[in-house]
Design brief:
The protein has 342 residues and is of the alpha+beta class. It has helices at residues 2-26, 79-96, 118-126, 183-186, 218-235, 274-279, and strands at residues 37-41, 56-62, 100-107, 130-142, 154-164, 168-175, 193-201, 204-212, 242-247, 284-286, 308-313, 317-324, 335-341.
Amino acid sequence: MRLLIKLLLYISVSLIIAIVLFFIWAGSGIISKDKLSGIKKYSDNLEDPSLENDRFKIVTFNCGYFSGMRNNMPVRSSRKFFMSNLNVFSDLIKNIKPDIVCFQEIDFSSYRSHQVDQSQYLSNHLKFIYNAFVINWNKKYIPFPYWPPSAHFKKMVSGQSVISMFPIINNTRIELKRPPNSFYYDKFYLDRLIQETHVRIGDKNLMILNIHLEAFDKNIRQEQAEFVIDYYKKVHMNNGPVIILGDFNCVPPYAEKKNKFSDEPETDFNNEETISIFINEDSLKEALPENKKDAYTFPSNKPNRKLDYIFYTHSSIELLNASIYLISSSDHLPVMMEFRMK
């Protein structure tokens, strides 16, 4: 009997040690902290574009690692599936002909998307000369979706990026406040970021704040929005053209529907000020301030709400056009703004 008890104790202790070691290993980073952001150039043989006209286009897209409507679902999609979604988006970009494209939820080297650096692939395929990136999810093993284990994300290097036909002269990674998660959940949670990217267009420096706000905690999301605006006002307001864009994970105050969505019945945006924080900043205007279905960006198969935005400094930027495009490459839809700098 004593021998059996000792054996069970030994097995239990060994199992606990194994779990703790796995937890420490899985939650550790693959990329060192000094390499969580950077700028790449597609080819030294390509010359920077000339200013043939004064009209420019910028696109923001939460690409959901090009998983279409399978984002976060417990399935293991093929490499062919991901490459097809990448190429569908690539064809759209060829038609839009933007000068700058900003991504959220893009994979750089992740098991879930078959180790393809999606940002670099699009840069190369579309011949965008410059590529700036920030990493916000850097883990050796993500045990999600929880079941079955075969669908686990595993190795994760993902984040945000900006690809540009014009020179990117600076790229900074700024972490936003984290929600109060349990220690084991927080160990595997992604960082929410501002990607501050400066693009040189002619003699002007266009500053882009590419953001991806908290998805689940309303109070933290509002605090993050306040931080973004405070940062913009302290550092960049009145210092040239600024565009703030990305996935804000919240509907606007003028939205007719704020809860009881068919795809996410538990989501409730009532009494939330996240988007109002941006709208109420007098120096900024929204590119698509419209309360109609044509302005919805999520979910891509049956859009019923607006989560993705472009705000700009109207004193230095003139809005010419703005559009949303139907596409199946992600669960979000891309937003485009055509503009002229004053």
